Amino acid sequence: MNLDELRSKVETIAFIMMENRSFDHVLGHLSLPSYGGRANVEGVRDLTNPAFQNSSQNGTLIGPFEMGDKAFPNDLPHERPFVTTQLAYAPALGRFTMNGFVTAYETFTGTSGVLSPPPMGILTPDALPTTSFFAREFMVADHWFAPLPASTQPNRLMAFAGDTLLDMTRNGLMPDQTLVFDWLTSHGVRWRVYTAGLSFFTLMPKMWPWLLSDKFRPLASLSFDAQHEADSTFPQVIFVEPDYNDSPIHLSGHGSDNHPPLPMGFGEQFLKQAYEALTSNVVRWSKMVILLTYDEHGGFFDHVPPQKVRYVPPTGATFAAFENTGIRVPTVVISPFVDRYSVSSDICDHTSFLQMIAERFGEPGETYSATVAARASSGINSLTKLLDSNLTTRPPPDPPDMMTLPPTQLVTTKTPVTSLEASFANAIDAFRQAHGAEALAKFPEIAHLEATR
Amino acid sequence: MACSPAVRALRAEPNVTCPGDPASLTWDASMAGGLTDTPSTAPTLWVPNSGSMKVYPQVKTTYRLEVHNWFGSDAREVDIDVRSSFPTKTLGRSLSDPSARCAQDQVSVEVDLTTTGWSNDLVVQSVRLPDGVHRTLHVEHDSKELTLDDQNRESNALTGSPVLGRWILSTPLTEGEVCSSPTIPPSLGLAVELSCAR
Questions:
Q1: Which domains does chain B show, CATH number per domain?
Q2: Among A240, A396, A415, B39, who pairs with B4 as Cys (CB 3.0-4.6 Å)?
Q3: CATH class for domain A3-21+128-386?
Q4: How far is A117 from chain B (nearest CA, A)?
Q5: What is the ipTM for the molecules in this complex?
Q6: What pLDDT, on the 0 to 100 scale, is given for residue B160?
Q7: What is the pTM of this model?
Q8: Closest approach of chain B CAs to the CA of A116, in angstroms?
Q9: Is A404 exposed, middle or buried (0-12, 13-18, 19+ CB in 10 A)?
Q10: A247 touches chain B (CB under 8 A)
């Protein structure tokens, strides 16, 4: 799709970012012969391929294996030093060998001798009813990378700002960076965030006034808004957030962002709900692009080496430059502007979304930012490139029904263990202190959290 | 602020053993917890926050240490692979390992198997090229050397040798290959059939 077509044909862009799964872990099965063997998808074509085997500390090599959906005993490693281990750069060969995922897991968890280590698990379609539906009906982007070989906060900042002041997820509040919300506001673009739980942007104090505004609404209202809201106020850019498992409070009893140790079932239900709401107005659907991706790989195996894209930290950041992207993440483009059963192997990362935002809503020739433009010059394509304006508009297909899953962990509140959990807990306390009754009225989760302490 | 508990480590050493061999479970957690085995041979064993114990599994067993308090839970799982004769295991290392070398004519890596991972009762039955590998592989172990290739994919030259010890795996560069060639595999491995000596 060219830029003129983008501006004339696309009215609504929606962005859904889940948590912590790799491409091979979620969509790698697409190229296995037993699940259709899609030759055009760069997945795990052969579980016994020696090139996929990972070193374990006891001197054996362990390959990927099929796994069903389940809760994991623990989280997987995905901070910058562990990603370095996972990429397994081989000086003798001058390349990444992509076989350090088991070693990183054993080091991180203090375990040895795990015969089926979680990082090597490959999910199968029965565990992924909604995602499999998306992969069948729309476009799989099989070369979509997390921007940085690092964890959640740096990669989400790259997605929502095009820059990051962090290279690690930290316990406290996040730095107040300029975000895509500022860019959209300054360009007069209508935007809104729909949340299934507490928003990720609770972590960023500058966002708190917006959190309390009509810009942030519960996911349950999206379907009504999509069907009934006037064009003059309906958002041009929509962000849909899951219920983050790292939040200390879940009124439903569980997160839905697919962050381990969560199983995928809750996330599959969330994705179905988000898709059905976004597509509930057929007229709006006909001019809509939905991007579904994951913030980073979460410690799971992927066999495709990262792209060489240098990222120099901005002024105020003290970490060493990154020399390459992160690991591939599962990504699907959901739109009438992509064909059924299609695949794009164009090199993209989360800043591909920001490129498209600038192309659609900026002045002609305007780039989103110098950093995003630099990444484009290094080979990161715009999401626009993946769209095809010549397709006949089709109504949104219906996703498969899902059984209602029993919650595996009915814990409505929990105390933080990981950095991101601590960050969420600290942010909620600070948000509550800053905005008092207003915060409690908008987010009953916070009152529930306080009542249980 | 009160804290959720954490399991920092759970290790089984050795984790490839013969039936009845002793193995050591060691753990480190922020609080006392429950240790279970699957298949179960005993009720949940309540253990202090850190320690070790000897176990004598007769079959492949998964051990799970779980800690709970009012604020949350954490767990770790490890396996001990116990058999009298094992299905194929692939010994090997990533070529990102510090022992990896790429010289003018070959790529090599060392695999040092120690008693922390492997029972000293285990002996080699046979070795072969892993499925999907179509390169020449030189193997040095137990003061013996052998070469495997597509014409001779399997060998009994190491039959009866202990699995413990240092294995050196190497593959010659083929014509036109250099160390940076994408055709060089990311790891070197050897498929090994093992059994218990006693």
A1: 7-82 (2.60.40), 89-196 (2.60.120)
A2: A415
A3: alpha beta
A4: 9
A5: 0.92
A6: 95
A7: 0.93
A8: 9
A9: exposed
A10: no
